[in-house]
Every structure is written in C-alpha cells, then in structure tokens.
Amino acid sequence: MSAIDPADLTLCAGPNDVSAEVRAALGSPILYHYDPAFLARFTAAERAIGAIYRTTRHEIILMQGEAVLGLEAAARALAGPGVPCLNLVSGVFGKGFGYWLSAIGAELHEIEVPYDEAIDPAVVDAYLDAHPEIRVVSMVHSETPSGTINPIREIGPIARRHGAVTIVDCVSSLGGIELDAEGWELDLLVAGPQKCIGGPPGMSLVAVSPEAWAAIEANPHAPTGSFLSLLDWKRQWHGQGRFPFTPSVSDLHGVLAAAEALLAEGLPAAHERHRRVAAACRAGVTAMGLRPWPARATIAADCVTAIRVPDPITDIALRDRVRSTYSVQLSAGQGAGNIIRIGHMGATARPMLMIAALAAVGRSLIDLGADVDLGSGIEAAMASLAEPAG
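Given the sequence above, the corresponding structure tokens read:
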C-alpha cells in the first residue's frame, strides 16, 4: 500500500483516469505480437487513429513510447545538419522543439510570441516569403502548459505553398479539438493517447503524409536501425509485416478501446463536449474574480483551462492545498508562468467533474487568503452549461 493515496479526482493536463471500457481492455490477456488476433487489433487501431486524424492519405505509425518519442523521431526524420527549419514558439513545448532542432544541427529560425499568445499566420507567411530556403515548419496545436491553441488550419496551407513540410505537435488536442490532417495540408503529426482520446500513456500516434515521406527518404540523416526511426516502421512493418521491435501489447489494447469509443461518440460530439466544459470553466474562473492565462478567449484551448494564480500565492501552494484538503489533482504550468491548470480531457471532460475542480480551486484560494467570489464562479459555470449547445 502506498504511503500516499491517489487523489479522489485527477483532473490534470493528462494522463487522467480512463473509462471502465479502457481499463478492461488494458487488462486483456497478453498476446504474442504476431498472433493473428493481435495483428488484427493493431491494424484496427491504425485505422481508428487515421479516422480521428481525418485522413486516408497519411500513413499511421503507432510508435511504442510516450509522445515525446514521436516528437523527437519527427525532428530527426526531417531535420539534420544545416537543414533550414522554422520553429513556431508560443509556449514551453514549442520552445523545447527548437532545442531538439538545434541539437540535431539544423539551421534554426524561430518566430516567438509571449506564452499567453498565439502565432499569427500572416507573420509566418511573411517570414517564409523572406526565407524561401526554409524546408520544415514545426508548430504546436494545443500548447498545454499555457492552455492556448495555434491556428494550424491556416498555417498548414501557407507552409505547403512555400514548399515546406510541417511537423505538428497535437499531443493534447487530437480527439478533443477540431483537427483535419488532410484538409489542413499538414504533414507529420504526433499525438498522445492519454489526453483527449482518453487512453493510456505509452504510445506515439503519428500520421505521415506522402510529402513528409518524400522529405524523410531524401534526408540522409533520418535515423534507421533506431528506436527513433520512422523509416524502420515504414519499411519493416508497413513494407514487410514485421515489427521493428516488440510493441506494447497492453497499451495497444487500451488505445484501440479508447479510439473506438471516441469514434462511436462521433468527433463533432466529442469536440462539442470538450468545448462546452472548457467554456463553462472559463466563465466560472472569470466570474470568480480570477484571470485565465490565455490573452484572449479566442485562443484558449478546449482541453485544459489555465488560470493565473493571484499574487502572492504560488501555484505550488495552491495545488498542494487543492490536493491535500479537497483530494483533487491538478497541473502546474510547467514553466509557462504562475499557473494552475484544470484538465478537460477524454473521460474527464464532463460538466460535474469540472465544477468539482473549479470549486476546489476557488475554496483553496479563499483558504490561502485570496479574495475570490466562489459562489458567483460556480453560478456562472452552471449558467454556461445551461446554454444551448453549439
């Protein structure tokens, strides 16, 4: 028995709790990875993830490692010494991707905005006009530490028009926020199952366009014979029906169950569920007398609500109070600022779970001496939930 019991509610920025169906799938028998039953499940999971990405054009690679693996694999597949890359930075994860590109030896260009802001597509267009040598544009869809979202729908076609391939970190957005890999002309996308899809951590869900494959094949620095190799998956699994290494059998069962449940709900319905809960949470935060971290509501992500912690209280003190007194586990801002975050992801994107988190945050701030109108916050959130959908 652990000395510290789990929180009653985990409503952080992922991983969160999963549905009973996903938990049951994770408890499925361990199958040999070449058992026909497992091969059928693996290919079913690839098809389901492709449907969630809304593409039949991209090849789906299910890498056996948490999404950071997929992101570094994407960087190494497309970049190399001297390759001109434009990295779009609006938060912690965008900045971190630039560190990878620099370590690989790429010629790094960056457009950076404050971490409560979003990238302007017109600025990207102008930069690519001025730097036609750029071959790769990397961006984050949902900057989870900041609770913000970038306009990748507009940026994808801009990059394609300039002859650059795109790398998209959609780790926290896929399944909960609208995303159309094919329609938005995006090339190499990486997501995680433990966020809005509502699955377990431990896999990277990668979608690769034909344009991205052409660029990877032409890159002499793209790794092969490596845990980070996308080419190994393409050539061995998709080319020969042979896994590069033993896949995470139990994780795959859970990811397939979560993806199938999401598709059964319907992507528009799932997106609306996340939007409705997040909008109500932001309404409650504002009515309580607090400030959301995103500079504008239009750039706030629907998978997580980031809240500015009022001085002199720290996010550490607030999160500790929320957990120790009210048994709710929330997230910090991971260096984006003095922030606390309430996650609305997958199975936890539910109205009453959000209300519980909001109440725990408000009451904890009062306990710590802040001037917070908890009643008005809960009333505003409930009123938002009562509004018609859409």
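The chain is about 45% helix and 15% strand. Try to locate this feature in the token string yourself.
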